[in-house]
Design brief:
alpha+beta, four-stranded antiparallel beta sheet, single chain
Length: 229
């Protein structure tokens, strides 16, 4: 009796899944194992390139679950046109109302779903090579840093003296925009979005603090893009 190798089992699973015949237990396990491998890379990339304030472990778990569930759905509907149409109709009524805080979160979710679809029909080369390529691109994009960073400058100054702050900012920052301004009889509070080189922050803060009209100044770093003023 000829001994089966793992490659033989893998080839048989690919043929079964792609031909639309009923998947065996081995076929399902092979697809899920490959999905888990790709999901590990997705979660590792997500955690390593995360730039937000609070890393959510639950979202990383959700990526894995979404990918594996998608794999099972694709296996179930592959080769069955009636079941495929019924599944499309059922999923079309689903509405997700969770707020997306970072646009990249959507990219990771689509990545996880794409892996599930590819592995569900045994396109393992697409899922593995695609995942590695996307991960490399994300790491390269994450390593790139602009020479200028965006900050929120919060100042308190004597009433009517905001112009003195603006005059200090103009020669030192690349862009600025007044986001909010609160005035009363004696004090003005202003929130100004600025884009400045990191090496010039100390000089700017020192000049603002030395300004006789400025009572207090704070600088907050954040990751939003600043449009031209």
């Amino acid at each position: 009796m000829e001994k089966l190798t793992f490659q033989d089992i893998l080839d048989a699973s690919i043929n079964n899944l792609q031909s639309g015949f009923s998947a065996t237990y081995v076929d399902i396990i092979v697809s899920l194992m490959l999905t888990v491998m790709c999901v590990w890379l997705i979660v590792f990339t997500y955690r390593a390139t995360f730039r937000g304030v609070l890393y959510q472990k639950s979202y990383a778990i959700a990526l894995g679950m979404a990918s594996m569930v998608t794999t099972l759905v694709i296996i179930a509907v592959s080769g069955n046109l009636v079941l495929s149409l019924g599944m499309v109709g059922a999923l079309s009524i689903v509405r997700f109302r969770t707020a997306v805080k970072d646009p990249l979160d959507v990219v990771y979710m689509f990545w996880a779903i794409a892996v599930g679809i590819a592995n569900g029909v045994a396109f393992f080369k697409i899922s593995i090579i695609g995942s590695i390529f996307i991960s490399i691109v994300l790491f390269i994009a994450n390593s790139y840093k602009s020479s200028s960073m965006s900050y929120l400058l919060i100042t308190h100054q004597e009433s009517g003296s905001l112009n003195s702050v603006i005059e200090i900012l103009k020669p030192r920052v690349k862009k600025y925009r007044i986001r909010s301004r609160i005035s009363n009889k004696s004090i003005d509070e202003a929130t100004i979005e600025i884009k400045i080189r990191e090496s010039e922050i100390d000089d700017l803060m020192k000049e603002l603090k030395d300004d006789k009209n400025t009572l207090d100044v704070s600088l907050i770093e954040y990751s939003q893009e600043l449009s031209a003023t």
